[in-house]
Amino acid sequence: MSENGTGRPAVTVLVAVYNEGPVIGDVVSGALAALPSCEVLVVDDGSTDGTAAVAESAGARVMRLESNVGKGAAIRRGIPEVRGEIVVLIDGDGQDDPAEIPNLLEALAPGVDLVVGSRFKGHFAPGAITPMNKGGNRFLTSVVNLLFATELTDTQAGFKAVRASTLRSMQLSANRFDIEVDLLLGVLRSGGKVIEVPVRRAPRGHGESRLSSFPDGARIFRRIVARRLSAA
Ligand SMILES: Nc1nc2c(ncn2[C@@H]2O[C@H](COP(=O)(O)OP(=O)(O)O)[C@@H](O)[C@H]2O)c(=O)[nH]1
Ligand SMILES: [Mg+2]
Question: pLDDT per residue over 40-69, tens digit each?
Answer without folding.
Answer: 999 999 999 999 999 999 999 999 999 999
